[in-house]
Specification:
By secondary structure, the chain is α/β, with parallel strands linked by helices. Helix content is 20%, strand content 25%. The strands form 4 sheets. It has a 9-stranded mixed β-sheet, with no helix packed on it. A hairpin with a 4-residue loop joins strand 22 and strand 23. Belongs to the transferase hexapeptide repeat family.
């Protein structure tokens, strides 16, 4: 290849690398600058947004925010829909419509649609793509398109400490107790008691904890050993390095 062509190719590659770095740097800046917090709410005026709560950029559809209350230290992922009311600019009265407790995590691409009250308890974690709604389409009239028929609504209550797996759906009227696990892709309706695991569509209880008998059916894996409260990050890293060295020694490989 002639020398001038080599020079041209090198310059083109350099420009691409620089453009790539600029795009990624710019996007990271937009993510930081576009995040919504109590100190930087942007155009959004929530009824409450607690200390340490953050809505990642880009946000999804958000409206009816005066009737949405977010607790402290919540994490709302990218492209999450949070809505109160059936459409923007409605007067929904004095009471909040959508309430998130402290420490709630909602994974990216999730949707929380509150046409009537939805409450999500403290420290509930939702994986990506979770759908929670207090409204469902009705199909009473066989002669009208379903989308044009007036929907039915019922309050939704999700207790504290729950885990909703990827793609889980919570339908109107559902009431989940404390520390409920909803398997990925499950469709939940009705009441779910405390300390239950539900799976399927419609979801059914597949495991439950009782004070007298523990988990039934029994768990197939041993419970993880809790981390002592006074352990420092440095000690944790040291333990991880020690465990890795022991695993290498067991496999007959030199450590490091």
């Amino acid at each position: 290849m002639p020398k001038n062509q080599n020079t041209f190719s090198s310059l083109t590659a350099l420009r691409r690398r620089l453009a790539n770095r600029a795009v990624h740097s710019g996007w990271r800046w937009m993510q930081r600058a576009g995040a919504v917090t109590a100190q930087t709410p942007g155009r959004l005026r929530f009824g409450a947004i607690g200390h340490g709560t953050r809505l990642a950029f880009p946000q999804g559809t958000v409206f009816g925010e005066p009737w949405i209350r977010l607790g402290d230290h919540c994490i709302i992922g990218e492209q999450v829909t949070l809505t109160a009311g059936m459409m923007p600019d409605l007067d929904l009265g004095a009471e909040p419509m959508l309430v998130l407790g402290n420490g709630v995590v909602i994974g990216r691409d999730s949707h929380v649609i509150a046409d009537t009250r939805i409450t999500i308890g403290d420290d509930t974690f939702c994986g990506p793509g979770v759908y929670i709604t207090s409204t469902n389409h009705s199909y009473d009239d066989p002669h009208q398109p379903v989308g044009k028929q007036w929907p039915r609504s019922a309050p939704v209550e999700i207790g504290p400490g729950c885990w909703l797996g990827t793609g889980a759906v919570v339908l109107p009227g559902a009431r989940l107790g404390r520390n409920v696990v909803v398997a990925a892709g499950a469709v939940v309706r009705g009441e779910v008691p405390d300390h239950a695991v539900v799976a399927g569509a419609p979801a059914r209880i597949v495991r439950r904890w009782e004070p007298e008998t523990g988990w039934q059916p029994p768990l197939r894996t041993p419970a993880p050993v809790p981390i002592p409260e006074d352990m420092t990050p440095e000690q944790l890293r040291g333990l991880a390095a020690l465990a890795e060295a022991e695993a290498d020694a067991a496999a007959g490989q030199p450590a490091g």
